[in-house]
Amino acid sequence: MQTKKTASVVATEAAAQSALRRGPTRDLSPEEERVMRMRLGASPPRAAPLQRSAEARTDLEIELLAAEIEAHLRWRAHQADTAARAARPQPSRTKEKIIRALRKKL
Question: What share of the chain is helix, strand, coil (3-state, %, to 5)?
Answer without folding.
Answer: 60, 0, 40
